[in-house]
Every structure is written in C-alpha cells, then in structure tokens.
Design brief:
Length: 648
C-alpha cells in the first residue's frame, strides 16, 4: 500500500491542512494483493474527514462520494470481468492511498468451527495435528491467482465497524501453512479448474456454536431458547479490545501448558530411577478431575521374552497421551483411539521395566477408557501376557496449569459482531460453511438457527441468494462410543439436510471419509474436493456430479420398506463384512439390521425379525457404516424415514 500526503507549500496552509483533515482509512478488508468480486458493483468503504470528497479510481474508472457527518464513506465501482493485476487509488483532499497487485475474480467467505479452522500445519496447541501430506502440500503453493485473508479472532458484544487487523496475502508456503486447509484446497481446485482468480476470506473459530455467528436481531427470535447477554451500555472499544485479546492469549497459554509437559519434568518422571513411592495408586479404567495426569507402572519381563516384540494395549486414553517404556517414547496418541503399539526389544531390560503415561485433556478430565482386558502386554501368540489394569501409580499434581480464563467466543452474536459484520458488504461469490458439532445437543433449535443464519447472512450482503455450500457433520471421537447411544449427532445431520429447501444451497456428505477416532480428520483435501464439486456443479454449472444419493420418500410394501432416492447416477452397494448400515423397525421402533436389494433408484429393505415394518434408517450412528454410493463414488446421505415423505 502506498500513501501520498498532499502538503501545501505555504506554511500556514500546511498547519491548516494538518489540523483539519483526518487520514483516509479504508476498511481493513482492503489491502494490497486482494481479490475483488467480478461482475458486481464493487463496494469500497472507509473513513476520512466529515464532508470530505473521496475519489476511488480503479482500472480506468473513477467514482466519488462525500463522507457523512461521522466521516464514513462508501462508493461502488462498476462491474468488471476477471483479470488483473490492477492498482486502486483512494484520494481525498489531503492524502491518498494506493493498493497494488489487485485481481478481479471470485471471492468466497469460509466460516464455521474447528474443521474449517484446521490449519495446514495443524494447531500450535494440538501436537501432531498436521494435515495429511502437509510437507508436500506446502511445496505446491505457487498459485499467483489465489489470495488469502485470515480474519483475526475477535469476539465483541457490539457490531464492529472494522476488523482489528488483517491483510490479503498471496499464496505461498508461509501464508498457506496457517490457513484453513479446507479453504485453501477449495480455492486451489476452483482456480485450477476455472482459471480465474480466487480469493478466500476465512473467518472461523474452533468449538463455537451457531448462536455466536448469528446477529443480535436474529437471536431475538430465539430468546425463549437461549439466554441473550444484556445490551452493552457505555461501550469502551479500547478497554474491550484489551479484555478480549487478553482472554484469547490466556486460552492459548493454558492449552499449551496442558498439551506440552516441561521437558525437564518429562525426563525426570520417565527415568527408571524416579521415586514414585509417594504417588497414589489406582486401577484402570480411570477418570480424574484434572487436566493433566501422570501414571507409572513397574513391569517384570522374563528373560525369555525380553528379545521378543511385545504388543502393548492401553485401552483408550482421552485425549492427548504420551506413552514411554524405560524413558523411551513409544508413541503419541491423539483423541481416544485404541492405544496399541509394539514395544521394540532393544529398549526392554531383563527384570524390572517402567511404563509411564501422560494424559492431557484440555476440555475436561483426563481418562483411561475401555474394559479391563483392554490393558495388557503380551506376545502375539499370547503365550506371555501381563494384565495392566491394576495398581498403577498416579499423580495429578506434577504440573501447574493456569485456571480457565473467561472466554467470549461462544457468546450469542459475539463472532458475528467481531468477525463477520466488519467484512460486510465486501463483494463475494458465496459461502462455504463447516459447523454443527458444538450444537449436537439441540438439533431442533439448530435447524431453525441454521436456516436463519443462511437467510440473514444473505440479507446483510445484499447480493441476492448467494450460494451457501456446507458440510453435513462427519464422524466424532470414540468417546461417544462409551456412552449410551443417542442420536443427537444424527439429528443435527437431519437439521442440516433440511436447509437444502432454501434456494442455492448445497450439502457435502462426508461420513465415509471422516476419522472414527478423530473429529478433526486430517484428509482435509478430500473434504475440500467435495465442496469444490458442489461449487462447480451448482454455482459454475460445470458438467460434474456433486451429490450422492439422497433419500426423498418411502413406501411400505409386503413385509418391506421401499426407499426412493434422488440420484443422478446408478446406485452402488459396497459390501462391508455383511454390514450395510441399513436398519428396519416395527411398531415398537426396535431396529434390526436389514437385508436390502437395489432396483433402479429404489432400495428395498426387509428383515426376518420384522413382519410389518413401519420405519427404516441408514447410517444412523455417530460413526456409521457407509455402503451406499452412486457410480461416481459419492456416498448416500444418512436418513431416517421419520424425516421422509411417506408415499401411499
């Protein structure tokens, strides 16, 4: 950005200009390297001196406007085709600003919670959270027509006029590594396939519910269901900024304290000669009301097995765990996935060996989960077997963790106010959205809020029914498998599916490519490719198929239920060890696995256990089996006949 100050040659005039004119400040969403939306009237806005004439010049066109009594101004450039690079100059009566290296193309607004946030190089505070093949992906970032804007995290009780910081960046390894992986891969595919500039404005925050992304007037519609904070009086912007940014930093510090043990402490505790005689004792499975817990256990390995590869099983350790044998780290295990690994013979000793575990849980209590027989050391043939479920030494007082800091990002409307409103009305092509995990407990409220969010965001941008493409939530961590099954996540998926009644929407089904043990699947490129397909099909009208089979209605036949699918391609069943994911029930709504056959666009379900079926469902689990696809490899969306029209 170049800034030119117009200085009068007469000293008295210089004094007059210096005291009478405020600096021209375009909104922070404008910077060098930006992409402006093609084929619309392009809004440009900012602040200057009240009643000052502002002239904006771009690509041979100029428009002007006077600032209002508050010094605010906004102009609209005419429509342009894709192209560039160009420069844009904003001139007032005392100074001017020029932005360079600007492209005209399509701009997408990417938002949601952690699966949209997930950076290419992972989170600082989640070890080993890099995406698949991230080193190779960072070598493939030379895309000069892709530009990235990371909206800074900032919750606010009132709508902000501007972002607190931020600038557009050209694509490079440095800019991509901390950027949303899904948004990056989405941009890359569109740029490659369409050969036009693509800009991505990324505004997301992990763990956030939908209510924080809605504006305050919308939330008034739901005041019987959620508590709205009182309207802020005598708001002090500077004080609030200090408070909000301090909260964000303290959350970051605390999460790092939990995730990473002090190196010297780790070396001491994992050493063979560490004295744990004063530690308490416990059995597995176990839950401790502490964020960080250490465990130690002494194990005798007979000489005849010391040089054999031994299998170690430790159930499910929730949520971030390190496992050491004789001071050597055997592995790091993220989320409660089965903790199984092989112990290399070269680290074992005859006689006493020491097994050490550190479990860190940023969002609750550290846990060991599973049945007692999930904890053991054994040879592959089980000729040698040691039960590890008993008599562990435990200490939850070894590490100091800051108390939880008051956070604001989940407050109703706070992220709309601080991260969405300041971007409006920057010209965009549409939205991509990945959120819903944090609302699994209130699916029916979510259905209404999600429809409201789509509708209201479109209204704020004043660009008609902008495309709104979203992910149906995928799998989740295995901790849900240790509870009585509830269908809250399945119901959230149905709530999301219902948004398809709104015009210009598209939904990505991704149950088949998620990770059953990790809510943050690392194959983000696959996710992005599917939402790019949605855009290429429904927005750019390319000759591609973007939807898998979608159940639309059902009918009851002779001892069977017939489900009618909307599908552009042939239905394909991919067998999975005699499990197909379809279930059927009678009047008692007790579900049994169903036998199925495919006839054209219909699936006929039956079961020898059910004579008069009344209901059916598919992929109705937190981590379901997915077997039904179309002939281009896209999965069927989960369904329950409870949410389908019944054909008579």
């Amino acid at each position: 950005m170049k800034r030119l100050f117009i200085v009068a040659t007469v000293p008295l005039l210089f004094i007059f200009y210096s005291s009478s004119f405020a600096e021209i400040k375009p909104a922070r969403i404008f910077s060098d390297n930006m992409v402006l939306q093609r084929e619309i009237k392009i809004p440009i806005w900012g602040t200057a001196t009240p009643s000052e004439k502002i002239v904006v010049s771009f690509n041979g066109k100029s428009v002007s406007e006077k600032t209002n009594s508050e010094g605010k101004w906004k102009v609209f450039l005419p429509e342009f085709k894709a192209g560039g690079p160009f420069s844009l100059t904003i001139a007032g009566e005392s100074d001017s600003t020029t932005f360079e290296n600007i492209l005209i193309g399509d701009v997408w607004f990417a938002s949601g919670q952690s699966n949209m946030t997930h950076p290419v190089q992972g989170w600082e505070w989640i070890p080993h959270s890099v995406i698949e093949n991230y080193k190779d992906e960072l070598q493939d970032t030379n895309y000069p027509k892709i530009r990235l804007f990371n909206v800074p995290k900032f919750p606010s009780p009132i709508e902000q006029d501007d972002l607190i910081s931020g600038e557009w960046q050209t694509a490079s390894a440095n800019s991509v590594e901390d950027f949303s992986a899904i948004a990056w891969f989405f941009a890359k595919q569109l740029n490659t396939d369409l050969n036009i500039p693509i800009g991505i404005i990324h505004a997301s925050w992990g763990g956030t519910p939908i209510r924080t992304w809605l504006d305050r007037p919308s939330l008034e519609l739901f005041c019987d269901s959620i508590a709205l904070p009182p309207l802020t009086q005598n708001f002090n912007q500077n004080e609030w900024k200090k408070t909000a940014l301090s909260s964000i930093e303290q959350q970051r510090v605390r999460r790092n304290q939990i995730s990473y043990p002090p190196k010297k402490l780790e070396e001491q505790i994992t050493a063979d000669n560490y004295d744990d005689t004063n530690w308490s004792e416990t059995d597995f499975p176990f839950e401790k009301n502490s964020n960080v817990v250490w465990f130690r256990k002494k194990i005798n390995i007979p000489e005849e097995y010391r040089n054999q590869a031994l299998q170690l099983s430790l159930g499910f350790l929730n949520r971030q765990s390190q496992v050491f044998m004789n001071g050597v780290e055997l592995g790091y295990f993220q989320y409660p996935k089965p903790v199984t690994t092989e112990i290399p013979p070269n680290i074992l000793k005859q006689g006493e060996n020491v097994l050490t575990i550190r479990i860190a849980q940023p969002f609750g209590s550290a846990q060991t989960l599973g049945e007692k027989d999930n904890f053991f050391i054994a040879t592959s043939d089980n000729a040698f077997h040691i039960d590890l479920s008993k008599k562990w030494k435990i200490n939850a007082q070894l590490e100091t963790v800051n108390p939880p800091e008051r956070s604001f990002q989940n407050n109703p409307a706070f992220l709309f106010n601080g991260m969405v409103a300041p971007v409006i009305p920057f010209g965009i092509k549409g939205f991509i959205w990945y959120q819903g995990e944090s609302d699994a407990g209130r699916p029916f409220l979510y259905e209404k809020m999600f429809n409201q969010l789509i509708t209201v965001w479109r209204q704020h941008w004043l660009l008609g029914n902008l495309p709104f493409l979203f992910f149906q939530i995928s799998n989740t961590e295995l901790s849900h498998h240790f509870k009585t099954f509830d269908d809250s996540r399945c119901l959230i998926r149905m709530a999301q599916k219902k948004a398809l009644v709104l015009p210009n929407t598209g939904m990505v089904v991704c149950l088949d490519i998620g990770d059953p043990y990790d809510v943050h699947a690392k194959n983000k490129k696959e996710f992005a490719e599917r939402i790019a397909l949605q855009a290429e099909d429904k927005v750019y009208r390319m000759n591609v198929v973007s939807d898998g089979p979608m159940a639309e209605s059902f009918s009851v036949g002779d001892n069977s239920i017939v489900v009618h699918f909307k599908t552009e391609k042939e239905l394909i069943l991919k067998p999975n060890k005699d499990i197909n994911g379809f279930e059927i029930a009678g009047d008692d709504k007790k579900y049994y696995p169903a036998e199925i056959r495919i006839e054209g666009s219909q699936v006929i379900l039956s079961s020898s256990f059910i004579k008069n079926p009344v209901a059916a469902r598919y992929a109705w689990r937190t981590n379901p089996v997915c077997t039904l696809y179309n002939s281009v490899g896209l999965p069927a969306a989960p369904f329950s006949t409870e949410f389908l029209k019944m054909e008579r």
